[in-house]
Amino acid sequence: MKLDNFSLFSTLLKQRTGYSLAHEKSYFLEARLLPVVRKWNLHSIDDLAIALHTKPNENMVVDFLDCVTKIESVFFQDKSPFDLFQKTLLPELLATRGTKKNIRIWSAAASSGQEAYSLAMVCSEEYSRLQACNVEIIGTDLSKEMVARAKNGIYSQLEVQRGLPVAFLLKYFFHHADKWQIHEKIRHMVKFFESNLISESQTHGVFDVIFCRDVLRYLDLDIQKRVLETLKKSLAPNGALIIGRSESIVGIANFFKLASPDHEYYIHPQSGGFKR
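User: That's the sequence. What structure does it adopt?
Assistant: Structure tokens below.
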């Protein structure tokens, strides 16, 4: 791939998604874009760059973004955020909500749905405590392909073997041809939408818990601040923001503070956190 064409791809990617791509990732870009080259009957990746630059077709742009922004998702990835959600956040939400019976959870950059469905399975396990509540889980991603996959809730044998406890596989999935599909009752707990964190107003309301993991590290500082402003507007008082283990917002978003030294989540400082 020509250097100039890599620059065209990376500029378009940043304009549309906020993602930054260093030149050493050119091999990654080439591997991801070959299906787009074939779909549009082009001869090479350089031809794709020229087409996107000189006569952009919005459907081609969408295909380009879908291929490049796919992020691998795993059930119960890192596990500790889900333990935190189940053992700390849910009990404290129930203790502080009073007569409010709605709990809303947002899985931002949900990819093919594993994170959102993991949260739904945790909520199902806590049914006895949550039965009086209306639990709503929203998953969003900018990839049309990933959102369609998430809605179907169908995963390969390899995908269900990665992070998913065997007991949950047997309890919440059924075998579908050579794949596994999540039970309808779990699928109905989650609604998936296409949404771009940097270019759209967040229109899905206010949430008690937001998972936005392993997104910020792909963004430049100015874009991180924009995304964090969106998350701030979307987080309820006493709500929790959970980001990736390798990420930090210290010095970037002063309107959030770390809830406690041993808990990897943030809150609005004016909310005071979950009241015990």
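The radius of gyration is 20 Å.
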